Every structure is written in structure tokens, then in C-alpha cells.
Amino acid sequence: MIGRRIIQKRAWNNGRRWLCPYMSSPPSPVPVVEPAEECKRHFSNYVKPAFSFTNNPVNFNIPYLVNRCQFSSNAVADLPMNGTVDVPLAQTGEGIAECELLKWFVQEGDEVEEFQPLCEVQSDKATIEITSRYKGKVAHILHVPGSIVKVGETLLKMAVEETQVPPIILHNLENAKQVDAKLNKDSTGGVLSTPAVQNLAKEHGININDVQGSGKDGRVLKEDVLKFAIQKGIIKEPSVTTTADLGELLLVVKNSSQVSAQVAVHYEDTIVPLRGFQRTMVKTMSMAAKVPHFHYVEEINCDTLAEIKASFQTNNTDPGIKFTFLPILIKSLSMALNKYPMVNSCFNEESLEVILRGSHNIGIAMATPYGLVVPNIKNVQSLSILEITKELSRLQQLALDNKLTPTDISGGTITLSNIGAIGGKFGAPILNLPEVAIIAMGRIQKLSRLADDGNVYPASIITVNIGADHRVLDGATVARFCNEWKQFIEKPELLMLHMK
What we know:
The protein is of the alpha+beta class. The chain is built from twelve helices and 23 strands. Helix content is 29%, strand content 23%. A hairpin with a 2-residue loop joins strand 2 and strand 3. Helix 8 (325-339) packs across helix 9 (385-400) and helix 8 packs across helix 11.
């Protein structure tokens, strides 16, 4: 708790963020010199909290009443230094240590209102907009899109209006400004540049302080670094004779029936850093690979399911709703989980306990331009097929727009992976921990089947592969669960009969 305001029985109205002692009689002026001694004469209890601006400790002697007072916290560190404040990356969720900066909504020099969106970041769990706590002007943007920013690290600096500071701490505040300005000058050398430009200079062994900037306010640009590197002979200037040499080579090939030599082409490797959901997949799949899996494969006849889906679509009056097989498969899966709750559980490895989840939060694996993500439909056991269809459509659109919230992708109890929507007969899925089961579904195929009377008939067959945590589930339990799910799909009248 950095600063406090004092609220006593009688109201006081100064409208400032700084601490001022309230007394029954008008307070006498507080001297700038030796403020603590002055306050000792008025109060029996006083505290000297230490404050820090830009990592420079500054002591402010701020007396405040202790007895019979109520306090509300207010950060003194938010006050501007030299008219600028640092805007850090706030904590976006539990356990989040870093985020990827996706894009900026502002540029240097833009005027910003309070609560206006500044940028968009993506954590392991969701995409979040960072808004401004201040009204002011963007002074300096410290990161470029694609950068990984640690929680608490400064995103940008903003120029804001000066706050009226009481005389009791003005002297110490001015000292903090002088110390901070000196350290900033020593650390940056007075050169303005983005992290990307600084990294480029570092790669070529160039001291960025030696580069003459051509940007606004002397900012060093990428072109300035490359030009400096060419002048110093660090990198070679592209040769103007390359085009001519290539033209001569093409002419020889054209006029000659045989080529005496072959031109070797060098293909360079490309390094692609993993970001967002792809980084999350690395962590989760690495952990899941350590869990003992087993898989159970079954074929399910979807002839009746196809008829119901066609009937739903024919009688659909809402053009915004498109019926597919998936909502019916999700609802029938929930019905099977009612009989086999162990499949809808999670495992606590430390306490060796299995938690039977009350809600059927069925996750749907979705492939997006930003990576694999698994949002889940909450409380499927209490939803109709129409409600499941609408919720599935909402999650799919949010996933494509990269707008899923932490609530959308957390709390899942079992996962469906509809790999057949892209292609493939079946897959061998890996668990989405801490869940104990995941189901991969292949595409529905028209295959020939043999009836009991010996006749051959066509059937719509889907192959499902259930991956299970063998620490919790055994083969017999998974087989019985799959049989229960299969009969609800092949005989939808049973689904209707048991639905509440």
C-alpha cells in the first residue's frame, strides 16, 4: 500500500490524492524543511513509508493518523514524473507471466482518453485489450507487435498533466526527478529507437549511440542502422552488376542447346517463433505426453443421425442457424456421461484423488489461424440441441476472430476433436489435462455393410477414437461408455426418451 487518504468522522474536501492531516481547527502551514518534526508536534503516531520511482528509492516522510481512522489505498507511484508516466502490462489472469503484443491501437503523438484501448495482447489463455488509466499523450512506445512482454514491464510512456503536489513532499519529488533523469540519460545515451532497431544494431555489433538518426526527434530507424553498417563495411552493399550477370547467364542458356554448368541455388532456413496458443500447445502436450494413454476405437452408424440433421435443417426458420451433426453428438455424449461420470472427471496427481465433475463442460478442439484452441460449452446436460447449436456457433466465431475469453476456454471436463471436418478417417488424440478422456472423430463415410440376411447395404459410418488416462480409466469402463454413447447416436429415439 503506497499512499493513503484519511477519512474521519467529519468530512474534508480537498480533492487531492495526497495525505493531509485533518484537525478540528484550521491547520497551520506545513513547512517544506523538516516536515517530520512539524508533524510530530501534531501526531503521536507517524509512519515513514518508502516509495520508488523508476527503481530509484526515494523516502517521503508522510505523517498520517493511525487511531480511529479508515483508509483507502491510492498509488502514489501513479503520479507523473517530468509530466510522463509508465504504462505497464497489468496482470491479465492467474498464473500469466507474459503476453504477446498483437497490435497497437495508438501511435506516438496520439491523444488518449482515460479507459481508451491502447493495445491488444494475447496470453496463454485469451486475447485482452489493455486500456489507459490516464488522459494524456503517447510519448514513447517501447515494444513492437510480436514482442513478448513480461507482466509488469512498461508498454509505453505517456505525457500527462502535472499533478498538484503538496509542499510536504515537493522537495523530495524534485530530487527523485533529478536522479531519474540522470539514470535515464546514462542508460540510453539519449538515443531514441525501438527494440527491433536496437536488436538489429546488436546483431551487427554496432553501438547504436554512434548511429545518426533520421527519424522524428533524431529517432534511429532501421534504414539508419543498415546505412551505417554499409559505410563501416560490416555488410556489403548490394551489387548493381548482379542484374547484368543474370541477364548474360539467361542469354547463354537461351542460345545454347546444352548447359555446361549448373547454377546452384541456396535456400535459407526461416526461424518462426511460437506465439499465443501455439506456445500453450507446446506446454500442454509436453505434459500430456508423460501420462499413460490407451485408445479405444469404434465405428458408429450415422444413417438415422443424418436423417434427423436433414429434418432439422429443412424445418429451420432462422437463417442464422446451420444445423450439423456435431450438436447432436455433443448432446448424446452428455447423456452417456450421466451413466459413466468417471469419464467426466479430472485427476489430482499430488493427492491421488479423482474429482467427478458435476457439470458437463464439453470442449471442442478448433483449428484457427492463431493455433489450436479448445473452448468448451458449459453445462451441456441442461441445454437443448438448439441451444448447443447457437453456443457452438458463437464460440467458433470468437475463435476465428481471436476474441475468446478466459471463461470460454477454461473449466472443460472432456474434449471432442472433430478431425473429420478437415479430413482423415480417425486420429489418436492426446489428453487435454487435467481431463481424463478425449475423443477424436473422423469423417463420415459411405461404406458397404452386410445385413443379417446376407444382403449388402450402404451405411454412413463414422470412426471414433477415445483416448483415456490409464491411471484413472480402464478399458472395460471406456468400452461400456462408448457403447452407451453409440446407442444414443444410432437410435436417437432413446436420446429423446432419456432427455430431461
